[in-house]
Amino acid sequence: MNLSATIKIISIVGARPQFIKAGTISRAIVEHNRRSPDSEIMHSIIHTGQHYDENMSEVFFRELEIPKPDYNLGVGSGSHGKQTGRMLEKIEVVLLKEKPDCVIVYGDTNSTLAGALAAAKLHISVAHVEAGLRSFNRRMPEEINRIMTDHISDILFCPTETAVKNLSREGISKGIYQVGDVMYDSVLFYAEKAKSIEQKTLKKLNVQPRSFYLATVHRAENTENSDRLQSIFNALRDVSSPQSPTLLPLHPRTKKRFVEIGLGKSNDVQIIEPVSYLEMIALERNARAILTDSGGVQKEAYWFKVPCITLREETEWVETVESGWNTLAGANKKNIINAAGAYKKFRSDSPNTVYGNGHAAHQICEVLQRWQASHRSAKNM
Question: Active-site positions?
Answer without folding.
Answer: 218
